């Protein structure tokens, strides 16, 4: 499996935006593919250590994504960098793509000198715990109870 930076494949931004919108359209932040498209395009200009990684299937279609973004939940200033948009296309689930992408995202953060990474999830706590994440709080996000988790990066 080869993991790539989205900034090297800008023509795939609309495809990824559509995939994310279809997966999470019931959540406000992902209800409009056009807005997701804009966020992905801006994020992948290489500013502020934000990025999106992807995997491509043999047919050239996107099989998975992960992003690191600033202040996905912005109410606690110290929680700066967030892992999100962890997505595997249904056709490719169960092949370790999400795990590989999360690990690659962590490694990229390490190279950027990021020391703490956060995420929130309503139902994937077990996966993240296996990857070394720790649950630090439960809260409501967009009307849904989620676990906020933290990963402390070491050099």
What distinguishing features does this structure have?
Aminopeptidase, 155 residues, alpha+beta, single chain, three-stranded antiparallel beta sheet, four-stranded antiparallel beta sheet, globular
**How far apart, in Å, are the first and last alpha carbons?**
25 Å
- Order of strands across the main sheet: 1-2-3-4
Overall pLDDT: 93
Strand content: 25-35%
Number of domains: 1
CATH class: Alpha Beta
**Count of DSSP E strands?**
7
Looking at CATH, which topology would you report?
Aminopeptidase
Note the main sheet: 4 strands, antiparallel
Number of helices: 4
Order of helices and strands: EHHEEEHEHEE
Radius of gyration: 15 Å
Global shape: globular
Query: Judging by the overall fold, what is the CATH architecture?
Result: 3-Layer(aba) Sandwich
Protein name: N-acetyltransferase
Domain N-acetyltransferase: 1-154
Keywords: Acyltransferase, Transferase
InterPro entries: Acyl_CoA_acyltransferase, Bact_Acetyltransf, GNAT_dom
Task: Please provide a written account of the structure.
The protein has 155 residues and is an alpha+beta fold. Helices cover 29% and strands 32% of the residues. It has helices at residues 13-24, 33-43, 97-112, 125-130; strands at residues 3-5, 51-56, 62-70, 81-88, 116-121, 134-141, 144-152. A 4-stranded antiparallel beta sheet has the order 1-2-3-4, with helices on both faces. Strands 5-7-6 form a 3-stranded antiparallel beta sheet. Helix 1 (13-24) packs across helix 2. It is globular and about 40 Å long. The model has no long low-confidence stretch (mean pLDDT 93).
